[in-house]
Structures are given as C-alpha cells and as structure tokens.
Amino acid sequence: MTWLLVAAGDAGEPWWIAVIKSLIVINLVLFGFAYLTLVERKVMGRMQLRYGPNRAGPYGLLQPIADLVKLIRKESFFPAAAIDSLYILAPFLAAFTALTTFSVIPWGPGWEIAGYQVNGYIADLPIALLLIFAVGSIGIYGFIVGGWASDSKFSLLGSMRTCAQLVSYEVSLALSVLGVILMAGSLSLVDIVAAQEAELWYVLPQIVGFVVFILAGTAETSRAPFDLPEAEQELVAGYHTEYGGMRFGLYSMSEYINLITLSALAVTLFLGGWHGPWLPGPIWFLLKLFVLLFFFIWMRTTLPRLRYDQLMRFGWKVLLPVATINAVVTALLVVWI
Amino acid sequence: MQPFGTLKGFGVTFKHIFKKPITQQYPEFKRPVYPRFRGRHRLHRHANGLEKCVGCSLCAAACPADCIRVVAEENTPDNRVSAGERYARIYEINLSRCIFCGYCELACPFDAITLGNEFEISEYSRDDLIYTKDMLLAEPIKRIPVQDPVLFDTPIPAYKRES
Fold first, then answer.
1. Residues of A whose CB is below 8 A from B24
2. Exposure string (b/e) for B105-128, b if CB count within 10 Å is 16 or more?
3. Residue range A10-54, pLDDT digits in tens
4. Which of A43, A49, A298 sits opposite B19 (nearest CB)?
5. Any CB–CB contact under 8 A between B4 and chain A?
6. Going from the N-terminus, what domains does chain B have, and what CATH number goes with each?
7. Is B14's Cβ below 8 Å from some Cβ in A?
8. ipTM above 0.85?
9. Omega of the bond prior to A225 within 30 degrees of 0, cis?
C-alpha cells in the first residue's frame, strides 16, 4: 500500500481515508454530471422561452435518472465492420481519464475528523497541473480511437475534427496557464491556491490568461461555439455517431465531466480555489464552479458555431499569440519586480 | 461592432431567463383545432335514427390510401338500417393507413362520413387502429375544443385577411 501513501501525498492521513474520499468525490462528480445535464437543459430552455424537461418528477428533477435508466436498458449494438476491442475500450478510456483528472483539484482546507487528518484534496502532486493536461491528452485518444474504430465516415470525420481542434487549442490552453505557474512558482494546485490566498486572485493580474483559458477550454471540451467535432448539422453526431446505449452515455459523461474539471481548474487557478469569506471552503468552491458552468451554458445558448477556417484562424492567429505574449510578459514582470 | 454585438447577444439570452416561456403544456392544455381540421372519421345518422350511409363504396373508391372497406347488403322491411336501398353491413377504416385527406368526405353523396376533430388516436396495437362501424357511429369523446368558426371558417385565407 505504499503507492497509495504516495498518491495521498504523504500528508499525514491514513491511506484508507484517501480511498473513502476518492469514492465520495467520484460519486459527487458523477452526480454533478447528471444534474449538470438537467441544469443545462433547463437554463437553455428558459433562455429560449421554453420550460426544459419538467415531466419526470417535480420540476423534472428525476430526468437524469430517467435518462440513465433509458441508456442502460438500450441494446449495446456495434457496427459489423467496427474493430471490436478498440470500439468497446474507447469510451471507457475517455470516461476513466475524465474521472481521474478530478483527483488533484483541492476543494477545502482539510479537517480533523475523529482524530484523523482529512485533507481537502485526494492527492497533492508536485506536478498536478502537468498531470491534468497529460491525462486529459490521453482521454483524447478515447475520442479519436472510438471514432476511427467504428468504421463510419461521419465518425472518422468527427474524430479528425476533434484531433485537429484539440491539437490547435491544447497549445493555447497550456500557455495561458503558464502565467499562473510563473506567479505561484509551483505546479501543485494546492500551492497555487495557497499563493492566491496570500496575494490576490490571479484572475486580476492574469485576466488575459483567464480569458484565453476559458476560450481554449471551451474548444478543448468541444462546446458551442467551438463544437465542430460534433456539429449535428454536418456530421450527425461526430465521433460517437455509431455509439448507442451506455457507451454513448460514457462519452457524454466524459464530455460533461471534462467540462466540470475544466471549470474546477479555472476556479483553482484563477478564482482563488476554495477560499472565500464566511462560508466553508467546499461551498465556495461549488459556488464558483457553478458560476463558471452557468457561463459555459450561457455561452452555448448565445453564440452560433464557428466555421472551420474561423476556428483555426482564431486558434492559431489570435489565441496563441495572445497567450504567448501573456506568458512572456508575466515572466519578465515576475523576474524584474 | 463585432465584440459589442456579441456582448449584446449575451444580454439578450440572459434577459430571456426571466420571461415567461411561451410553451403550451400539451396534455394539460389542448390547443383548439380549426373548425375544418381533418381528424378521426365519423359516420352519421338521420334524425329518425337511420344511417346515412347506403353502402355505395364511393368513399372506398376515392380513398388514395385504400384504407376503407365497405360490404353492402340489401335493406329488408323487417331490417331497415339505412334510408336507401342498401346499407353498409361492414364499414371499416384502417386508421393506421389513413392519410386524413378528406376525399371520402368529398366522395360521399349523402354526407354520411365526415372527418371530425379528434387527433389523439394513438393505440398500442395496430389492430386497435381498425375502426369498425360501431366505433365510427358512436358519439366520440370530446377531447379537443374547436376554435371559433366565425373567426376561422371563412373563405378568405388568413394571410389575405391581415393586410
């Protein structure tokens, strides 16, 4: 069990507390995903003068459960020409990596419960930020392999678009975070949150980085207006065209969890993490998280999809130079001030 | 101005959250249909109780979907069903085939068959969609309100009336 001790950051808590915490966090994230879909449909509905789902349970509150039951009961078909092993494994890979990345995000100060030390994070890695980007990049394999293995033109086109878009925007995303890393002097998310509490929220000095992060993050999670990988009008559904039932559910889940993780990362890096007056840490964390998620939903309702050349031009000619200049200027300021 | 236009769009979507949705909640609220709406068929009777249908099969001949089946039989003095010489012993409409074009209504020389207002005619089985004569003759359950004929049942189309 030494590896679990390492995973727990060797921070004075027994390994089994980390296991319990990760169970709780995984279930909370899954719960958050389920109800994020409902919130998204409700908010989008109200913005479009509709009600959104309101039939399953009071105010449609049981809608995610109804969706889940429907997806699980569906037949798990797959195309005759698909490469079975890859086709089946790809959604699991996507969902697994999406869930994994949440482990390094701190959500509270840590407590002392019944004499045991309980930290406000599952793992405090010295390279947490790198881990998030690395695992996120592995998750992209899930999307690409799934689309390619299902042997359909629409899936393949969706995969190719996903591939091109993620490659274009991953660079800007990583560069936009560089300013925060330079200011905090650490890659550990716990340290970054602590540094923001000591100085100020990095959204103020790093406003350019924040905007670039949000824009590139929207593209990374392929949400409107950057939802070209699954443009319904052209591509049926993108890389998961040939998926049905719970396999599609896993893809959908990984997309939404990626969005939650990205928002959580934005909260941690730019909005002071779980810090805030009066209320306890986790509540503040959830509040900030919800504001960001609401913004993503809001943006989806407001903006139409970009054209493909607009997407590429925006990524390479606008976001990348801005992120680079931001990183360079931050580096100079950090050295000279 | 591009960026300000985008911001204005955000404002519009946000404002709409607080407006009342225009959705009509269907099973609770049923939107009235127009008076000439073509829904489920009805067979009619004369005021003295005799059926108007004389079993001439013109409706079946006019039907483009071929969904009407009429089998006629002679009226006898001790079994008088319709006002004419013959009556429809079997009158069936397969509503899973029907396209609700209303040609049967046009073809009928005695106005025996008309298309009513009901559109809630889903069933769990295809067999249940074959309506027999008894079902078509029976007074249908009033589910759908009809809109004001004075307002809507005019020979002038609505798009011309407005301007």
1. none
2. bebbebebbebbbbeeeeeeeeee
3. 556 778 888 888 888 889 888 989 899 999 999 998 888 888 888
4. A49
5. no
6. 32-139 (3.30.70.3270)
7. yes
8. no
9. yes
